[in-house]
Amino acid sequence: MSGKQARRRRQQAAAPPPIARKGARRRASPKVLVIAALSGLVIIGAVVGIALAVGGNGSSSAATIPTVGSLTNALPNAAAVQREFAGIPQNGLVLGSPKAPLTMVQYIDLQCPGCRAYETAVQPSIVQEFVRTGKLKIEARPIAFIGPDSIPARKAMIAASKQNRAFNFAQITYANQGTENTGWLNQTFIQRAAASVPGMDVRGLLDEQNSTFVTNATHRIDAQATADKVSETPTLLIGKTGSKLKKVSSTAPFNAAELAAAIRSAG
């Protein structure tokens, strides 16, 4: 072996593992997720997006919790999120007219970078062209897929669905998403995200997170994810309302033009 070949092999051995592409969909082992949740794993690290004033236990005093959400002192992009969904009916975890001829189910994780790429770069055009016009309704099915921070995130989104503001809450969370499993998605963040949704009963959402309503919804969604063989987020299924939906095949991240074509084809 020449000296040059030896140096090349040493450099290859010392190279760091590849980094996932920005916006790539995520795959995770449910077994790993359960073990992480049970062990209470928390990885402390830098939070990307915003800086939050957090107390020693990650919570804030009741005096700082606003009664009703508004755009006053809201998180970044809250106004844009409000414009995106303004005037579109929400019923629980469903966005759009109940009479829409087409349905799209989306399995998402609120701390998934691929979901963020889809929700912030692709979904707005789909909402504008198909949902706002009554052609399509979207059903969100949040799952705890990536790790410990996914669990409070989906509980909070489901709690927001009881007030018909789940999509606003999720979109604000994506717009201010931090690094996976660094502890950023704590109760302080959830409180601030809820307070950034106009009309949200903030205390009501916080109190609802561990309710029977939320627990039953998580069990139902988990059963649906198993039946649909969900192995990555986001996973999208499209079809005629009331019929069996088909999984959308796409590059990662999803392409708006491809997804629009899939919706038109389904109709």
Write the layout of secondary structure elements.
Elements: H1 3-14, H2 30-39, H3 78-85, E1 90-91, E2 94-95, E3 102-108, H4 113-121, H5 123-131, E4 136-142, H6 150-161, H7 166-175, H8 187-195, H9 202-208, H10 212-227, E5 235-240, E6 246-247, H11 256-266
Parallel strand pairs: 3-4
Antiparallel strand pairs: 1-2, 2-4, 3-5, 5-6
Helix pairs in contact: 3-7, 6-7, 6-10, 8-9
Percent helix, as a range, is 40-55%
- What is the overall pLDDT average? 82
Structural class by sheet pairing and helices: alpha+beta
Strand content bin: 5-15%
Termini separation (Å)?
62 Å
Strand numbers in spatial order across the main sheet: 1-2-4-3-5-6
Q: Tell me the radius of gyration.
A: 20 Å
Please give a handful of descriptors for the protein shown.
single chain, 267 residues, alpha+beta, six-stranded mixed β-sheet, 11 helices, 6 strands, 42% helix, 10% strand, globular
Structure explained in plain terms:
The protein is an alpha+beta fold. The chain has eleven helices and six strands. It has helices spanning 3-14, 30-39, 78-85, 113-121, 123-131, 150-161, 166-175, 187-195, 202-208, 212-227, 256-266, and strands at 90-91, 94-95, 102-108, 136-142, 235-240, 246-247. It has a six-stranded mixed sheet. The chain is globular. The termini are far apart.
Gist?
By secondary structure, this protein is α+β, with helices and mostly antiparallel strands. The protein has eleven helices and six strands.
